[in-house]
Structure formats: structure tokens, C-alpha cells
Write a structure and sequence with these properties.
With 246 residues, the protein is α/β, with parallel strands linked by helices. It has 13 helices and eight strands. A four-stranded parallel sheet has the order 2-1-3-4, sandwiched between helices. Strands 6-5-7-8 form a four-stranded parallel sheet, with helices on both faces. Strand 1 (5-12), helix 1 (18-25) and strand 2 (30-37) form a beta-alpha-beta unit. The longest helix is centred in the middle third of the chain and has 13 residues, at 86-98.
């Protein structure tokens, strides 16, 4: 009997989208194993991220006991809010505690955009203002020209758990209008937002690569685990699994 490939995923406790997206695209012989990091629907700002990230070390150790082949940290804000460098420190901590290669969302997003050779980007998000401001600073520090950052009005007021409940059709309509024609790629940020299900239609409408937080995290994590079969129906990035960098 073949041994399954095991993926560990640590996520904010309010997030009900990230694990579901991993399960949505995972090949039949890949299993997903989650661990939640404490966050409440009322939490906001850097202090809430600090509290949530206090759980990273323990989460990595727990996932390590499951002998996972790779670990994903599935939170965009939690991996960019301290600025560039924190994402790398997080990856190192997870790897040292779990014994498995790790990927963090923000670092994965950057790698995905660079895979496509993108330099100028539009960003759509479900974030309140403080998240978007820090996201823009982070992306610009990584060398991207951020043409615009647009927040979906309902989702940005819905709280951490409420973001999960927005219909992908609403995301398609909003993000396609947030995209600017002179952008090399569109980024849909947030692992609680169901934007993975919107990627195919967004790429059809824009004609450009679309990167989402969960899509990029899955791409980076699957590569770490040696999963190379292309995944169709969720954008160019997952179709590229196994390809050399663009």
C-alpha cells in the first residue's frame, strides 16, 4: 500500500476557507491535516496577529508528530504585518520545530508573482485599511510597483470569520473591476477569502495571471512536498506545478 503525502496546514482559528481550498485541489493520494491558531472575529490590528503567532511554535511541533511532508502557514496578514524578513523567520521557526519544509503565505505570494515575471500589480482584498496599508508597504519593499489596492466594502467590515462567507461570484465582480489594464498580474489577498474559486474566471476576464493567497500557498507547499502534477481549473499557477520558473 502506497503511503499518502501528508500536508500540515496551520491557520487562524476563524478561517474556514484555507483548509477547504487545500482539500479542493489536493490529489487523491494527498491528505490535509490542520492546526488552528487563536484568533477571534473581533480581533484587529497587530496585537491580534502577535497573539495568534504566539501559537506557531506549538502548532509546528504538533504537526511534526504527524510526520507531515510539508507545512503551510496559511495567513497572509500574519506573515506580512511585521514587514519583510518576518516571513522568512517564521518559515525557519516552523521548519526547526516540525522537521518539515515550510511555506508562509506572503512569501509564497511573492514567489508566485515573480514566477510570472510580474512587476506592476493590482491588489484586491477583503481587508480593513490598516491591513491594506501594511500589505502595500510589504509588496513595495519586495520590489513590486503597486498600482492600486482596493478593499471589497462588505468583506472589509465583516470581521475575520465573516470574510469566509462571501460568495466567489461577488469576488469575481469586485476583483475584475479592481484590476487595472496596465498591471502585469492581479493579487487577491487573504486566505479566508474564497478567491481561489474565482481565479479561472478572473484570468479569463483580465487576460493576465491571477494570484490568490491560498493558491500561492498551495503551490509553494505542494512543491515543497514534491507534488508535481498540474492542477487544472484554478488558474495558471497551479497548472504550472512541476514547471521550471518562468
Amino acid at each position: 500500500m502506497a503511503i499518502r503525502t501528508r500536508i500540515g496546514v496551520m491557520i487562524p482559528s476563524t478561517n474556514t476557507t484555507c483548509e477547504a481550498d487545500f482539500q479542493l485541489v489536493a490529489p487523491q493520494d494527498v491528505t490535509i491535516h490542520g492546526h488552528r491558531l487563536w484568533l477571534t472575529n473581533e480581533s484587529a490590528g497587530g496585537e491580534s496577529m502577535d497573539r495568534m503567532n504566539d501559537d506557531i511554535k506549538a502548532a509546528a511541533r504538533y504537526l511534526g508528530t504527524a510526520s507531515v511532508d510539508a507545512v503551510a502557514y496559511g495567513c497572509t496578514t500574519g506573515s506580512f504585518y511585521k514587514g519583510p524578513g518576518w516571513d522568512k523567520e517564521m518559515i525557519e521557526l516552523i521548519e526547526s520545530e516540525s522537521g518539515a519544509p515550510a511555506a508562509a503565505t506572503s512569501d509564497s505570494v511573492v514567489a508566485a508573482l515573480r514566477f510570472f515575471g510580474a512587476k506592476r500589480i493590482s491588489i484586491a482584498s477583503p481587508y480593513p485599511q490598516w491591513n491594506n496599508e501594511r500589505l502595500q508597504v510589504y509588496m513595495e519593499a519586495q520590489g513590486f510597483e503597486v498600482l492600486n489596492v482596493e478593499a471589497e466594502p462588505w468583506a472589509s467590515q465583516a470581521g475575520n470569520q465573516g470574510i469566509n462567507d462571501q460568495d466567489p461570484e461577488v469576488i469575481i465582480e469586485f476583483a475584475s473591476k479592481a484590476w487595472r489594464p496596465d498591471a502585469d498580474a492581479l493579487l487577491c489577498s487573504c486566505t479566508a477569502w474564497r478567491s481561489l474559486e474565482a481565479v479561472h474566471e478572473l484570468e479569463r476576464r483580465t487576460g493576465k495571471p491571477v494570484v490568490t493567497s491560498n493558491q500561492a500557498t498551495i503551490w509553494a507547499t505542494f512543491r515543497n512536498a514534491g507534488i508535481t502534477q498540474p492542477i487544472h481549473g484554478y488558474g495558471r499557477l497551479l497548472e504550472s506545478l512541476g514547471s521550471v520558473a518562468a
